[in-house]
Amino acid sequence: MVLELKNITKNFGGISALTDVSFQINEGEIFGLIGPNGAGKTTMFNVITNMFAPTSGEILFLGENISGIKPHKITDKGICRTFQNIRLFSQMSVLENVLVGAHCRNKSGVLTSVLRTKSQKHEEKSNHEVALELLELVGLSRYEDTIAENLAYGQQRRLEIARALASNPKLLLLDEPAAGMNETETENLFDLIKKVQQRGVTVLLIEHDMPFVMKLCDRITVLNFGKKLAEGTPTEIQNNQDVIEAYLGSE
Ligand code: ATP
């Protein structure tokens, strides 16, 4: 098991964003987290990455309790995320964006080249190689020198994924990766997430595009008003009467 969420509750003042939510994600799964607006999905990502501490509950990552660990340490442990709104270094090149992710993996990355020892320079080269390989994976090799903000929307989304992968995560959290994409971009994204899975990375994804979720995910948890409404395979979720009434029926 990669991730185990045990009885997670998160309150913001009088608002209960998550109430006693538990689920587990197995190694190598693509796991979907769905539900209506305000259901608590992004809050769950924020709790997993400890941007907010849960009010109560426990988070186990590869069997280790990571509740209370600082967000950057969570990345070191092997969890990386993308955000609902694109957060690239917009004035940096495509390659540089991925290198930033790779530097998060290697502590030497924060040193200037003058300070680096010979072996650290070697690491820098391997970061470069990793970045090029990831650009190929996401189909952006020929844009390596392009300034990030000049990429098309779907390409920027794929670049975010490459940057997240550069930190070498075991678990990748994707917050609405298909939002705003056209049909071709969504198809490319689908293929990319499958390839990420084939590389051995477990994926947890929030998404409102139901055909995309149902085709892509191995299992799904549905949240509604901060509570777990259902969990199961895409077929089980599509046939669940509570889910149809609360969410799918209104799509
Ligand atoms: P969407 O699909 O619209 O992105 P969501 O399922 O991701 O929604 P959340 O963003 O997690 O939902 O929000 C869940 C609830 O928690 C909402 O009522 C929201 O207003 C509240 N909430 C989230 N973050 C905060 C915060 N930092 N302070 C106060 N309330 C918050």
Automatic annotation (TrEMBL):
Origin organism lineage: Bacteria, Bacillati, Bacillota, Bacilli, Bacillales
Organism: Psychrobacillus faecigallinarum
Keywords from the UniProt entry: ATP-binding, Nucleotide-binding, Transport
InterPro entries: AAA+_ATPase (IPR003593), ABC_AA/LPS_Transport (IPR051120), ABC_transporter-like_ATP-bd (IPR003439), ABC_transporter-like_CS (IPR017871), BCA_ABC_TP_C (IPR032823), P-loop_NTPase (IPR027417)
Keyword Aminoacyl-tRNA synthetase attached: no
Protein name, entry field: ABC transporter ATP-binding protein
A Pfam family annotated for this UniProt entry: BCA_ABC_TP_C
Coiled-coil segments: none
Keyword Transport: yes
Positions of the ABC transporter domain: 3-250
A molecular-function term among this protein's GO annotations: ATP binding
